[in-house]
Amino acid sequence: MLKYASHSHLMRLATFASLGVAITLVVAKAIAWWFSGSVSLLAGLTDSLLDGAASFLNLLAVHYAIRPADDDHRYGHGKAESLSGLAQALFIAVSALLVGTQAIDRLQHPQPVEAAGWGIAVMVLSLALTAALLMVQGHVVKITGSNAIRADSLHYRSDLLLNGSILVALLLAQFGWQQMDAIFGLGIALYILWSSFQIARESVAVLMDEELPPDVSTRMLELVREVPGVLGAHDLRTRISGTHWFVQLHLELPGELTLSKAHLLCDEAVLAIHKEFPRAEVLVHADPQEVVGKETIS
């Protein structure tokens, strides 16, 4: 329980940090865009506005996802994280389309970038805040494995590239390369759109109960087969829900074992997996060896 309480605290911290960064950058970019008229800055502002909406939605989703299992949700509420990931993907795709449309219009109707100094200062601030947020999110994902925080982190990694590109575009505009502002805006829009597809793909994989990577499943089978007294294991199934991995497998045991001894071996198999994969919740079904042999023959 202490471990899950710590995970919940970290996930809440990451969501509040994300929302705080998004709000700060919206205000800063809005001021800089108002003075400069840069389409790249407008791209950054649009993205930050949607970041704020996505971060707020993510905060609500994580708050719901970390609730313990109840009578109506015996496997917990973890998939709320993946639903949030899909919503974030939609937000990001919309921002990409808005930015791309504005960039194409600016290519057709060029306008000078004014007061670029404001934009440059804001983009340096954006890079610093985004980098700090990514460090926090990376730490939280490493400890909790949260799908929602991972999706948000992917989102902000694309923002890091976006903000860096805007900074370069503004610097080039200072030297007379005005169209580079719109060209960078279009490139950023395409990258943001690609990021939205990545987030959506990961979220759908969890919602569709996609298996854990094959090397993880293979390792789990190796661990239980190494337990003294276990003859073998088969039919391992896995799925993900939030920060939890749900694992089911059949354990092959000698048929003459007492129920108590068989139960003890099942517990040892569960512990063997849990030691290496602490996020796994394991359910074991014991099969007598002679029954497994008959199934193989048939």
A few lines on this structure:
The protein is mainly alpha-helical and 298 residues long. It is built from nine helices and three strands.
General description of the model:
By secondary structure, this protein is mainly alpha-helical. The protein has helices at 2-36, 39-65, 80-108, 116-144, 147-174, 179-207, 214-225, 259-276, 289-297, and strands at 232-241, 244-253, 280-288. Helix content is 72%, strand content 10%. A hairpin with a 2-residue loop joins strand 1 and strand 2 (244-253). Helix 1 packs antiparallel against helix 2.
The overall average pLDDT, rounded, is: 77
The biggest beta sheet reads: 3 strands, mixed
User: Can you list the strand order of the major beta sheet?
Assistant: 1-2-3
Number of helices: 9
How many angstroms does the end-to-end distance come to?
45 Å
Helix percentage range: over 70%
Q: Over the alpha carbons, how many angstroms does the gyration radius reach? A: 25 Å
Based on secondary structure, the structural category is: mainly alpha
Approximate strand percentage: 5-15%
Extract low-pLDDT stretches: 1-5
List the secondary-structure elements in sequence, H or E: HHHHHHHEEHEH
Shape: elongated
Number of strands: 3
Distinctive features:
9 helices; 72% helix
Topology overview:
Layout (H helix, E strand, L loop, with lengths): L1 H35 L2 H27 L14 H29 L7 H29 L2 H28 L4 H29 L6 H12 L6 E10 L2 E10 L5 H18 L3 E9 H9 L1
Parallel strand pairs: 2-3
Antiparallel strand pairs: 1-2
Helix pairs in contact: 1-2, 1-4, 2-3, 2-5, 2-6, 3-5, 3-6, 4-5, 5-6, 7-8
